[in-house]
Please model this.
Amino acid sequence: MKFTTALLRILAVTGTLATGLAAGQSFPTKPVRLIVPLSAGGSTDIIARTMAQKLMETWGQSVLVENRTGGATMIGTDAVAKAAPDGHTMLVTPAPFSVNPTLLAGKLPYDTAKDFAPVVLINTSPLVLVVHPEVPAKTVKELIALAKAQQGKMNYGSSTVGGSGHLSAELLNMMGDVKTQHIPYKGNAPALTDLMAGRVTFVFNGTTSVLALIQSGKLRALGVTSLTRVSALPDIPTMDEAGLKGFSATAWNGLTAPAKTPLSIITKINVDANKAIVSAEMLQRLKNDGSEAGGGTPQQFDTFIKEEMAKWAKVIKLGNIQPE
Model:
């Protein structure tokens, strides 16, 4: 979202929630842990560390980032589900949070809907649909027509099964009423390498990973997956504008706390996190990451999560996506 929109939202949040702050004013009373269920050095981790620094400045208390990896984010997520509900342990919540309930049904050691209290959406990161320049499709509609003509033989690459790129392509299959074949890779780099070599037809990938390749003419961008255009690629239409109405597929991060965390504490964290999100440091970090600032109320984040869970549940079931 644009800075002015984010600022207006924060003002609304501050005015709406101010009455709930009083009981949470003493928070935090000890160091706060932000659990990142992904490896250090990645996008989620870097954003978490920037957020931690800004919250530490506001609270005058240590805010520590702790990476707990493994189990497709389950290990770190479960640690927060079972933590004391006092706001001193929170989850830096990535997009798999809304995917795993369906993708890993019956395997989660926690209840996504009941064991967490949404606090705030930190950011969203749109993807870009890219093809090799020799692919005879210059628009999303032309790519869909080409896929239909190839009767299920067109393929696409992604960095992992169940990741944002994979799910975006399956959403394209569902909304475009086509069938394309998934080729999973171990990371973005090999998927893009095979795309540029012509071994796969298309890939959905993060903006920062493909921007230079688009600008140099090594790849052609057909659409972006957010509902608004990406500032780095202003001439590239959204998938919605390209004819797939309502198409939205973004990577994202937020903050969630254990269920039963007092509302007064959730409110205080929310207001302080909203201010951190529009700080100069965070906005620069998000720009570098190709992300848009989030923000808003806990209720808005709760609605966002539920909508994401419902959308990806449908895509996973229709696409018969199975975990690796």
